Amino acid sequence: MAYVASAGAATPSPAGGCIFCEALASDDDRRALILLRSAKAFLILNKYPYASGHVMAAFTRHVGALEEVTEKELGEVMSLVRTVVGALGRAYHPAGYNIGLNQGRVSGAGVPDHLHMHVVPRWGGDSNFMSVIAETRVLPESLDTTYDRLLAALDP
Ligand SMILES: [Zn+2]
Mean of the per-residue pLDDT values for the chain? Predict the structure, then answer.
């Protein structure tokens, strides 16, 4: 999961704030890049993706350790992971996925105080290695486009 760890490390958090809590507080889900909200979890696009369709399933509660989440919260996050994998499959037809959670800053978590799972679609021969090796991002489409494609695919 070195790739996922690296992706997490690249997610900047603004000074003094939590990007997930700030997104949740927004009344404009599109602007906040939130694709879907359930009671205890939500789906949000990574603002600094390493691949188109890089989504995060986050706990709604500001919590930084898996041992502190409830079964219900865990179930909702995993359920959203499954849902978005289905949507990514319909919209992007990836060959596979990296799905992972970083806990603690030492793990590479960019926002260590608010747990989230990365879902990164992968294709055979994709260019994601460039992100790891050269910190070069190759983005074939804008976040707006990804948002529209995934939103449509979430509601087939
Ligand atoms: Zn938070």
Answer: 85
